[in-house]
Amino acid sequence: QKVLVIGDSITQGYGPLFSSGSYFNVLQRLTGYNMLNQGIGGLRCEPASLTAVDGFEPDKIITFLGTNWYDAADIYDYENATIEFYKKLTELYPDKEILSISPIWRGDDGLDKKRFDWCIDIVKRELNRYDNIRFVDGFTLMPHVEECCCDKLHPNEYGCLLLAQSIYKEIKKFKF
Question: Most exposed among 3, 82, 129, 142, judged by the fewest C-beta atoms under 10 Å?
Fold first, then answer.
């Protein structure tokens, strides 16, 4: 199976000391999938970030985005961008299975949990429009402790291992 993974710095591999310890690389080993990492630090759920990848036609797609919108000045920009992102993604890949993971726990001082939940609810509501997209609540994928992170947000090696194992369980659950 060929899988395109679209994400931000967490997917890119920021956090673990060695790239082999990133959740992406651990997940690739667990699944045996041929995965293409399109993680870009700071990437937001914006339609302009989506283009077809020349020479790589995925069988499935995983998106792992949203944390970079958490502190957006205008939360309605987040909502509109999310709607347009998934619309464009399904136009580019209309017949592909998509697994969409919402943001993981953040250990930020002063985290506005109500705002964070509102962002996740937007994604859930939008994804309900599509039969080919499965939602995974990223907030449940790893323990909510700083020991799993290198900087209160990005998972360290241990956090990445737990994250990859949890995503793998979701993949099996959805038969993805």
Answer: 129
Nearest alpha-carbon partner for 105 in 132, 139, 80: 139
Specify whether the CB–CB gap between 99 and 33 falls below 8 A.
Answer: no
Centroid of chain to Cα 11: 7
- pLDDT tens across 63-96, in order? 998 788 766 667 778 888 889 999 999 999 999 9
The residue whose two tokens read 């399904």 is 90
| Side-chain-facing half-sphere of 25: CA atoms under 13 Å | 12
Give the separation between CA 7 and CA 21, rounded to whole angstroms.
17
Q: What are phi and psi of 6, to 5 degrees?
A: -110, 125
Q: Which two tokens stand for residue 72?
A: 């957006």
pLDDT digits (tens, 9 = 90+) for 12-57: 999 999 999 999 999 999 999 999 999 999 888 888 889 888 899 9
